[in-house]
Amino acid sequence: MAHVLDPWLAPLFSLTASAPANGAIGTVLLAFLVVLVGEGTLRIVARVNGGHLARLEEELRKYQELSREAASRGDAASYKALNRQANSAFGHVFFNKFGLSAAALWPCFFALDWLQSRFSPGGVPVPGRPEGLNYVLVFLIAYLLVRVLAGRLRRVAPRLVARLRAARASAPG
Fold first, then answer.
1. How far is 123 from 132, CA to CA, in rounded Å?
2. pTM for this one?
3. Which candidate, 22, 42, 133, places its Cα nearest to that of 96?
4. Which residues contact residue 103 at a Cβ distance below 8 angstroms, ignoring those fewer than 6 apart?
5. Dist. CA 94–CA 111, nearest whole Å
6. Which residues make Cβ contacts (< 8 Å) with residue 42, sequence separation at least 6?
7. How far is residue 164's CA from residue 158's CA, in Å, rounded to a whole number?
8. What is the pLDDT of residues 120-164, one digit of tens each?
9. Distance between CA atoms of 65 and 76, rounded to whole angstroms?
10. Is there a contact between 31 and 139 (Cβ–Cβ < 8 Å)?
């Protein structure tokens, strides 16, 4: 599989004349690409599976509310039965959401396979370690940084877009 990805990914690692800079920049760009593909996949799967997940969450809310009502009435037998149903519904919701998170992670394995084919056993050259660091470590650090940055951008982006639109609307011309 690595040879199929090579024409698209190798250029990410040759943007400068410095091998350590290329290693760092390329790995961050690869992590960015992985996050984009993973998030796109996650959105598609969530859209396809959204109705099912909504039904599971509604079932969970129903059993939680019914078990609370039974507890407030002092009906221990009903409470236990309803709480067992609520726990089962919670398990279904939890594992469905866990499966959704896997939809965002699958591109990581292709990226790691490609990195292994290019940088194993020597490692990815990075600033401060031109001889290279383990490709898994370098990728995981880059991936986590990009993931955190993407999360922050996702929260800030709507406000930035609103400001840009407001500025454009109030600009003369």
1. 4
2. 0.75
3. 42
4. 38, 41, 42, 44, 45, 46
5. 27
6. 100, 101, 103, 104
7. 10
8. 888 999 999 989 999 999 999 999 999 999 999 988 888 888 888
9. 15
10. yes
**CB 125 within 8 Å of CB 131:** yes
In terms of C-beta density within 10 A (0-12 exposed, 13-18 middle, 19 or more buried), how is residue 114 classed?
A: buried
Cα separation, 11 vs 22, whole angstroms: 10
Instruction: Say if residues 79 and 71 touch (Cβ distance below 8 Å).
Output: yes
Q: Which two tokens mark 79?
A: 């409470």
Structure tokens that stand for 151 in this block: 């999360």
Q: Which two tokens stand for residue 127?
A: 């600033």
Identify the helix (H) or strand (E) that includes residue 127: none
Distances (CA, A) of 74 to 62, 70, 86, 103: 18, 6, 18, 43
**Is it the case that residue 47 has pLDDT exceeding 70?**
yes
- Neighbouring C-beta atoms of residue 79, cutoff 10 Å: 19
pLDDT reported for residue 97: 87
Helix axes 19-73, 135-170, angle to 10 degrees: 80
The structure tokens listed for 99 are: 């499966």
